[in-house]
Amino acid sequence: MGGGFYGAAIAIYLAKQRGFKRIVLVERESALLKRASYNNQARVHNGYHYPRSFTTAYRSRVNLPKFVRDWPQAVTQDFTKLYAIARRNSKVTAKQFERFCREIGASIQPAEPSLRALFEPHLIEEVFLVREYAFDSTKLASWAIKELEHCGVHVHLQTQVISVSRGPKHDLKVVMTHADGSEMCLSSPYVFNCTYSGLNQFTGDFPGTRTRLKHEITEMALMKAPPALEGLGITVMDGPFFSMMPFPARGLHTLSHVRYTPHMHWNDEQGISPYDRLEHYERATRVERMVRDVGRYLPAVLEAKYVESLFEIKTVLMKNEGDDGRPILFEKHSELPGCYSVLGGKVDNIYDVLEKLDSEAFPSPVIAESAISGVSR
Q: What InterPro entries does the record tag this protein with (predicted)?
């Protein structure tokens, strides 16, 4: 259920690596990879972002070269990436950050004077040159479309799963509706629910995830970088925390701010659709406040031109709110055998999901011919 990057990648994995013969991918939008897969910073993490969560940082460090290897056509490397540490209110010092990077094996070195000069020295303790990349979600979508067709996966667009229940023959009954109001029912031994913010929005016998979730409406501002910041990706941390990252799908930069990017939040609850909340949200931009605060640390950003904002739902595990960790959610629903729920907070988390699937004992390809896969990010 869902046709984002995770959904496509898992469906392709089931076909290529596990021998599933009939896979159905269900996506509520009119095209693949149009929601959270597109509306984000487009950052391929290398661990720097998580100095307070060693496990998340190390997993990103391990996964980045794999992602570059497997999706080279979608990875943008031709920019200079800087991480700067704020002098005040930062939860890590420059020395602590440098030591942390050494511990996870991430490349780091002091930035040259011309790059340091971009920052206000009385607010920034140190500036580091690091190795971190961006991805183009439109190229990932092209890969997904081609591979899904090659694997014979049946893709249903503008279709939404509304119910997952036990079937009469130890299978799962999946009810879905199309945009025109028509209804369809499929039976399958397996359902892979990776609908990101919609994980718990099903009726029937679906029990919901044991892990508690939190939703945020977020704003990612798309900016035309001024000449001084072209070819750069910048993150200031760990407290004031903002990022200006290349957004390859549009040839622009995203601007995000820890204080102004999240507009509102609430705890996940069945029957309260995050997507409905987003649809009815006013979407008044906070870009002026972002730019004003970022400009104190990085004056050149005051010359950037605002283009538009991407509003989306961001979903995180409540247990990791305090340490910024981003582990995957991977749950097997014992009350509904054959049903899995999957959520990942970052594009490189896909390898953690595939490792979990590698350890699952699925039946032979012949028995699994009627399998339905619905997955997303």
A: FAD-dep_OxRdtase, FAD/NAD-bd_sf
**Structure confidence at residue 185 (pLDDT):** 95
Of the CA atoms within 13 Å of residue 153, those in its CB half-sphere come to 33
Query: pTM value?
Result: 0.92
State how far the Cα of 357 lies from the Cα of 59, in Å rounded to an integer. 17
SS3 369: helix
For residue 154, the Cα-to-chain-centroid distance in whole angstroms is 24
Distance CA 191, CA 43 (A): 29
d(CA 238, CA 258): 10
3-state secondary structure of 135: strand
Provide the CA 177 distance to its chain's centre, in angstroms: 26
- Classify 73 in phi/psi space as left (phi over 0), alpha (psi -120 to 50) or beta: alpha
**What is 5-359's CATH superfamily?**
FAD/NAD(P)-binding domain (3.50.50.60)
Pairing of strands 203-204, 159-166: parallel
Q: How many helices (H) and strands (E) does the chain have?
A: 8, 21
Q: Which two tokens stand for residue 321?
A: 């709110």
Q: Is 307 helix (H, G, I), strand (E, B) or coil?
A: strand
Torsion on CA atoms 207, 279, 219, 312, rounded to nearest 10: 40
Q: Dihedral sign, CA of 39, 43, 49, 54? A: positive
Tell me the average confidence (pLDDT) per consecutive run of 10 residues in the chain, 377 residues long.
92 96 95 95 95 92 96 98 95 96 97 98 97 98 98 96 92 95 94 95 95 97 98 92 97 97 95 94 97 97 98 91 77 95 93 96 53 37
> What is residue 324's predicted lDDT score, i.e. its pLDDT?
67
Q: Which amino acid is at 262?
A: P
